[in-house]
Design goal:
This protein is α/β, with parallel strands linked by helices. The chain has helices spanning 11-26, 41-55, 58-79, 83-110, 115-122, 124-139, 149-152, 168-177, 208-218, 252-260, 268-276, 332-342, 368-378, 409-419, 442-455; strands at residues 2-3, 33-35, 146-147, 155-156, 187-189, 192-195, 200-202, 224-228, 249-251, 281-285, 294-297, 309-322, 347-352, 358-364, 386-399, 424-429, 435-441. The chain has two domains: 2-221, Acetylglutamate kinase-like (Carbamate kinase, 3-Layer(aba) Sandwich); 309-455, VC0802-like. Bound molecules: aspartic acid (ASP) and magnesium ion.
């Protein structure tokens, strides 16, 4: 079970997490807890490290350290019932915070911040949270020890800021953590690991889900539970459709299609170890523990729901590249994509009709200017006659594995949009048939989502 930053937002919430975990253990489950930093702490650590390197102001660091100490002391008091344990945990926190302070002051003097130092500094969020959670469990009678990622056996490559676990991780975690399961609930820091030299690395922002997935895979868990502040993966954005529901069961593939489209609940990278080892992942709400949440499983339930969710992605722009010279000319697409890659442009969606006379792309809006500039420069006096763009668009995606080999889904999608008077600007469906994406004008996006959510009955209880 992994609890996210909001779930462990302060001491009271931490206590709730400890009690909740105890309840599941008392029900006969073996549990490992993975904790995030308190919400906002990772951001604050990163911000202060950056400021330290840029301004070299040690008083600012002192102030930050005082705030951080106060916040974590308070949390320890609120999360832990027993004075003796509060004192022990507080001493542990103080020792860690002292190391952190030294590191930040070092950065002030050196005036330099490497990715390796960033990982070291940002690891403190989780390293301060874990002892408190562990103390909270101890104070309600559950035996528990806390581990950093490295101590638990998560050994990574040297890619600081985005480290990947080495294969040895899976046997090490099993060796170190499994024997503890019958005596209590081990607590592991999310987000961090260490490389083979024993230097702290981080797994990327939001990396606690990744940690949980690695540990669950190593222990061949029955399920990996990711506790967040939402009732699971939703059929759509509830700001757009208030009747949006949480999806009871979804396949890995569908979940991945959704996360690409900004559902932001699950990152594909984070569940990769779970997918590879075939372990189901459940997304649950810490604040509504009785709601079953969403179970993400390997096999696709084709027959049941054709469409599982409708999502929208904003802050994108469309580029259209055209010219009669493109027809039948080999290598135009290759040049377009290479040029955009070299310019550091992220491409969200692609479409080319069989006339080959134009290629349409959707890119992140922030990348639009450099994208257009790069393409114009590459094809200065050549086969591309026109490069136009449109900022005023959104992409809507209809997702569901059941769409594969089911005739008539596209018909229903575009029929419903037509009836509602929504104009479709560009369309793309990969041959996996799990996702139909289309671009509409920004003002049409909301209506498109509402119409399709209704068309496929997603508001109905399953
Ligand atoms: N604390 C880390 C972050 O904020 C990891 C996590 O919360 O999952 O990115
Ligand atoms: Mg976080």
């Amino acid at each position: 079970m992994k609890f996210g930053g909001t779930s462990v937002g302060d001491g009271k919430r931490m206590k709730h997490v400890a009690e909740l975990s105890k309840k599941y253990r008392d029900d006969g489950n073996e549990i490992v807890l993975v904790t995030s930093a308190f919400s906002g702490v990772t951001d604050a650590l990163l911000k202060n490290a950056k400021e330290a390197s840029e301004t070299g102001k040690t008083p600012v660091i002192k102030e930050f350290i005082a705030d951080l100490t106060k916040q974590h002391h308070q949390a320890a008091h609120d999360a832990i019932n027993e004075n003796g344990i509060v004192e022990k945990v507080t001493r542990e926190l103080d020792a860690r915070i002292e190391e952190l302070e030294k590191a930040l002051i070092g950065i002030c003097y050196i005036g330099e911040l490497t990715q390796r130092s960033i990982d070291y500094i940002s690891s403190y969020g989780e390293r301060l949270a874990a002892p408190i959670l562990c103390g909270s469990l101890n104070s309600i009678g559950v035996s528990s020890h806390s581990f950093t990622g490295g101590e638990a056996g998560i050994i990574t490559n040297d890619d600081y800021g985005n480290a990947k676990p080495l294969e040895i991780t899976y046997s090490l975690v099993k060796e170190r953590i499994e024997p503890l399961l019958n005596e209590g609930i081990p607590v592991v820091c999310g987000f961090i690991g260490e490389n083979e030299a024993g230097i702290i690395t981080t797994l990327g922002r939001g990396g606690s889900d990744f940690t949980a997935s690695i540990i669950g895979a190593a222990l061949k868990a029955d399920e990996i539970w990711l506790w967040k502040e939402v009732d699971g993966i939703l059929t759509t954005d509830p700001h757009i459709v208030p009747e949006a529901r949480s999806i009871p069961v979804i396949s890995y593939i569908e979940a991945m299609e959704l996360s690409y489209f900004g559902a932001k609940v699950l990152h594909p990278k984070a569940i990769e170890p779970a997918i590879r080892h075939g372990i189901p992942v459940r997304v649950k709400n810490t604040f509504h523990p009785d709601v079953p949440g969403t179970l993400v499983v390997k096999d696709e339930k084709k027959s049941r729901d054709i469409v599982k969710a409708v999502t929208v992605i904003t802050k994108v722009a469309l580029i259209n590249i055209s010219g009669a010279g493109m027809v039948g000319t080999i290598g135009v697409a290759a040049r377009v994509f290479t040029t955009l890659a070299n310019a550091g442009v992220n491409i969200v969606m692609i479409s080319q009709g069989s006339s080959e006379a134009n290629i349409s792309l959707v890119v992140d809006e922030a990348h639009l200017d450099k994208a257009v500039k790069a393409i114009k420069a590459e094809f200065k006096n050549g086969i591309i006659k026109e490069v136009t763009h449109d900022r005023n668009i959104s992409v809507v995606a209809v997702v569901g594995a059941g769409m594969a080999n089911t005739p008539g889904v596209a018909g229903r999608v575009f029929g419903a949009l037509g009836k509602a008077g929504v104009n479709v600007i560009m369309i793309s469906q990969g041959s996996s048939q799990h996702n139909i994406s289309f671009a509409v004008s920004e003002d049409g996006a909301k209506k498109a989502v509402q119409v399709l959510h209704k068309e496929f009955g997603l508001e109905r209880e399953k």
